[in-house]
Amino acid sequence: MKPVAKKAPTLNSMGAKTIKRGLGKLVATLAPRQAGAHKLPLGRLHAGPVVLRCALGGGGIKRDKREGDHATPAGAFRLLSGFYRADGVFRKAAPLPMRPIRKSDGWCDDPTSGLYNRPVAAPCHWRHEKLWRQDHLYDIVIVLDYNIRPRRKNRGSAIFLHCSRADFAPTEGCIALRPDDLRRLLPRLSRNALLTVR
């Protein structure tokens, strides 16, 4: 009788004790399509022994990311800092610097601006994303070290790890997890956690 190879658990929701504190490596990949499956670019986020569903950019994964192409950039990115909704959404300690989102908070995605791919405060006449959202996708937002140092015009902005929609609809280029999975994962990350997209 052939020995059965052990597989990492594939979960839609992560158990509270599944991942130990100090996780330093995350890997996001496109999930293989199954026959008859819808064409959304679903992904998998490997976090230690757990594999979680995630949403990726509608343009897939690209090495040559451009502003507005809806693609998730390929590469290895540090998790720099984050924002959260303080109105009862997130209260756990995290290894990353985290601060509450204010209604005036935004992120510049205008390549013609000197503030491109930086946080901004409203009112701001440059094109920008609002971080305080009614759809709650940014209830927890982790800023990835993509196109930050150095910043290059038109190479993509506001690449985050954030909350997904219930149906894992494509993002504009970010990686998105179920809110409960992201909430449970965050305190278990190490200070030097690296997210690889491939």
Please provide a brief summary of the model.
This protein has 198 residues and is mainly beta. It contains 1 helix and 15 strands, in the order E-E-E-E-E-E-E-E-E-E-E-E-E-E-H-E.
Q: Mind explaining what this structure looks like?
A:
By secondary structure, the chain is mostly beta strands. It has a single domain (23-197), classed as L,D-transpeptidase catalytic domain-like. 4% of the residues lie in helices and 35% in strands. The protein has one helix and 15 strands, in the order ββββββββββββββαβ. It has an eight-stranded mixed barrel. A three-stranded antiparallel beta sheet has the order 10-9-11, with no helix packed on it. The longest helix has 7 residues, at 179-185. It is globular, with a radius of gyration of 17 Å. Mean pLDDT is 87; it is low at 2-12.
Number of domains: 1
**Multimer state:** single chain
Task: Tell me the β content.
Answer: 35-45%
Q: Per CATH, which architecture?
A: Beta Barrel
- Beta strand count: 15
